[in-house]
Design the sequence.
């Protein structure tokens, strides 16, 4: 009798179900392993450095910059290297608390109503105590902001990812990030009266979701045209193993990372700290 491949001839029937089932289970197992490996890679913490391909002199302020989080917004500052680590150069040395550089990773956003689930992105907003917030896009203004689940859930929380070579951040499948001069159109006195202006913050990060240069989204005060803006690339700078180990050891003293099921991930503080969780406040 000729060979019947994966089937076995029994009573006029070819029964290949056990073999096919075994192959299918093996493929599914490999798929899950690949997904787990990808998730582990996406949970490696990174800083974000910026580049801007423009000949305009103003662009020098955001080219080779670093992303920081402050006042619930995401900003770009010049940066320098200290001990091999990029750090922001604050406009004033006496800013308290010090400006906090973005240090984040990708993780699934916990919302059962989003189908399919979306990959979110979080960043530390404080080292002591260690706190994480979601990075999201304001659905009205398209500015990058940060907040806990309550603050972010009604806005654009994903799909965050990286470019094919894993070197730069993407959102909704492309790099549409723009640096906007928030001081444009204000007098020095008006600007310095704002919380960010008082600290010398100027360039905020937006996402050009409609691919139209943020037309109509960011007009100058009193309606005087559009604020200055430049396209920027958000480059991932992986933190060293030593940095991540130290941060993990420090964080493990104060919080526990726990995953629940396949569609939810949450960060749970120890019982003594649950009145104020790692997302910044009680949800």
Sequence:
């Amino acid at each position: 009798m000729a060979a019947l491949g994966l089937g076995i001839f029994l009573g006029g029937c070819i029964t290949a179900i056990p073999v096919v089932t075994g192959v299918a289970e093996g493929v599914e197992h490999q798929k899950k392993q690949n997904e787990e490996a990808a998730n582990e890679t996406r949970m490696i913490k990174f800083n974000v450095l910026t580049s801007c391909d423009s000949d305009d002199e103003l662009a020098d302020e955001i080219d080779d910059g670093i992303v920081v989080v402050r006042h619930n917004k995401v900003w770009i500052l010049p940066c320098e290297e200290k001990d091999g680590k990029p750090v922001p150069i604050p406009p004033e040395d006496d800013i308290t608390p010090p400006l906090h550089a973005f240090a984040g990773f990708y993780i699934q956003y916990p919302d059962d109503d989003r189908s399919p689930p979306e990959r979110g992105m979080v960043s530390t907003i404080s080292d002591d105590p260690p706190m994480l917030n979601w990075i999201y896009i304001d659905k009205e203004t398209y500015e990058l902001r940060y907040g806990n689940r309550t603050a972010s859930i009604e806005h654009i929380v994903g799909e965050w990812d990286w470019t094919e070579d894993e070197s730069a951040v993407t959102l909704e499948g492309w790099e549409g990030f723009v640096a906007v001069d928030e001081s444009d159109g204000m007098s020095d006195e008006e600007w310095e009266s704002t919380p960010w202006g008082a600290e010398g913050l100027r360039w905020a990060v937006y996402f050009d979701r409609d691919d139209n240069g943020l037309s109509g989204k960011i007009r100058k005060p009193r309606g005087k045209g559009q604020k200055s803006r430049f396209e920027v690339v958000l480059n991932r700078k992986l933190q060293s193993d030593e940095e991540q180990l130290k941060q993990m050891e420090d964080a493990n003293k104060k919080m526990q990372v726990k995953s629940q099921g396949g569609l939810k991930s949450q960060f749970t503080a120890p019982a003594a700290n649950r009145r104020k969780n790692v997302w910044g406040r009680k949800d």
